[in-house]
Design goal:
Oligomer: single chain
Largest sheet: 5 strands, antiparallel
Number of helices: 2
Shape: globular
Number of strands: 44
Length: 481
């Protein structure tokens, strides 16, 4: 942002001067010229907070431009919350307190989903009439919370829906229950958005020809089929990738994992690329080093390969619990919940062929985040957002932002007394930036650094700068980083 301070305005009363100054506000093409990828913590959860603590699930980007998530603990009953915030971390608001008991769910562990009707749908892994969990809907403004389904008969319906929901083109919701059935292997289910027509379409047996204990959301493939993973089951009881149709009449195993050296085991989640290829992660006891993998597989079960086996001793991240996502230019981004450097976890990136692996950020504990259990989400501007379960100023978790460019630091007010100029600025918390000055907007080489500053924990500051104002005016701008 660029301010023009006109010297001809200085003789006017302060109120008139402010109107004139804001009238001459220009957005500089030089603003935010940084191209380096930056990491910023934009929210710290407070221990014992009524708004929620310990976010475990992935965030989602709403159609209104805000981000939505759930915390597994905290709130008025300490049983979890649903929350919303703006991309810059401002406007954080609690939308729902989970109360548990027979009337409400508790401990939401999965990402929300925005339905075709604009409402938010999700699951809570416990609570409800039999404490087997629930499926719920809530409007994006926090109104209209309703329970669509109480899991009642665990043998038939399943129990503990720890994964999120997916919506088909016909509007029907699909999801998984982690436990239940005769074998205890969980289920795949479907129901309408008004809570009617609940149906178990696949009970997992946990046998060698089936999966068991699904703990992630399903994926609707480009072919209209449902794809997913289970943590156990398959030939070696170390998980599978499966495909099925929406009525459950056809179910196929695409991959059975094993714990043998070089293979992957215990898959977390999958996503699908625009060309149809599935990409996923496995948590531990797999890969060349036994610390987890990133893998890919075609929808026909062919072409399975491990893109990355996470290393043992050294500085690599290890142990994964969430899915990877696609960043800009088709690069995959993911998290490990611990690492060999300081044990607090990492954000990493890797291309779809397995090359160009690098760690984007090492979490450092407090006040930075630690232990990112949930996955991440990319927004329309290319920025990536995620959460950590622990860390922050009180150890209750954080929200972070990763981007190829930081959001700008904006001028919010400007005052003067004699030759002293007081600039008030606001940006993200702990955002480094430079204040520059110029006397000619058309002279791109005329910008000179006035000061290097940081917005601090509050995200705002006031800078008093003694300067001889030029005629016809003095220009100020911020540059980040």
């Amino acid at each position: 942002m660029t301010f023009l301070l006109s010297s001809s305005s200085l003789v006017r009363p302060a109120k008139s001067f402010l109107r004139a100054a804001f009238a001459m506000l220009f957005v500089s093409s030089f603003l935010s010229v940084a191209t380096a990828q930056t990491y910023q913590r934009i929210k710290t959860f407070s221990a014992g907070s009524a708004t929620g603590v310990n976010p475990q699930s992935s965030l989602i980007a709403g159609s209104d431009g805000r981000l939505y998530g759930a915390a597994i603990s905290g709130g008025n009953s300490n049983l979890g919350t649903i929350f919303v915030f703006n991309k810059d971390g401002s406007g954080f608001q609690k939308l729902h307190d989970f109360a548990g008991g027979v009337a409400d769910g508790s401990q939401p562990t999965s990402a929300l989903m925005e339905g075709q009707d604009g409402g938010l749908y999700g699951t809570a892994s416990a609570g409800g009439s039999n404490n087997f969990g629930i499926i719920f809907r809530i409007n994006k403004d926090g109104s209209g919370y309703s329970i669509l389904k109480h899991f009642v008969n665990s043998v038939v319906e399943g129990a503990s829906p720890v994964g999120g929901l997916a919506q088909g083109g016909d509007g029907v919701l699909y999801g998984t229950a982690y436990a239940g059935t005769v074998s205890g292997g969980g289920t795949v289910f479907r129901l309408n958005t008004n809570g009617t027509a609940f149906m178990t379409i696949h009970p997992f047996s946990s046998g060698i020809a089936d999966g068991g204990t699904p703990q992630s959301s399903l994926v609707f493939g480009h072919d209209g089929q449902l794809y997913g993973v289970t943590f156990y089951g398959g030939t070696n009881s170390t998980g599978v990738v499966f495909r099925m149709n929406t009525n459950g009449s056809v179910f196929n195993l695409l991959q059975s994992f094993s714990s043998s050296a070089g293979d992957a085991s215990y898959p977390n989640a999958i996503i699908q690329n625009s060309d149809g290829v599935l990409f996923g992660t496995t948590s531990y006891s797999g890969g060349l080093n036994g610390y987890g993998t990133v893998f890919k597989i075609n929808t026909n079960g062919l072409g399975f390969s491990i893109l990355r086996s996470f290393n043992g001793p050294g500085t690599d991240g290890i142990f994964l619990t969430a899915e990877v996502i696609f960043g800009t230019n088709g690069i995959l981004y993911g998290t490990t919940y611990t690492d060999q450097l300081n044990g607090y976890g990492t954000v990493f990136k890797i291309d779809t062929g397995g090359g160009n692996y690098s760690i984007v950020h090492y979490f450092t504990g407090d006040p930075d985040g630690r232990t990112p259990y949930g996955g991440m989400v990319r927004t329309s501007d290319g920025a990536i957002y995620g959460t950590t379960y622990f860390g922050g100023s009180s150890g209750a978790g954080t929200i972070f932002r990763l981007a190829d460019f930081p959001l700008p630091v904006n001028f919010t007010d400007i005052q003067r007394a004699g030759t002293n100029v007081a600039l008030t600025l606001a940006g993200l918390p702990n955002q480094a930036f430079r204040i520059q000055s110029n006397t000619n907007l058309n002279n791109t080489n005329g910008w000179q650094d006035v000061a290097t500053k940081n917005t601090g924990a509050s995200g705002s500051l006031q800078f008093n700068n003694p300067v001889t104002l030029a005629s016809p005016g003095q220009l100020f701008r911020t540059v980040t980083p």
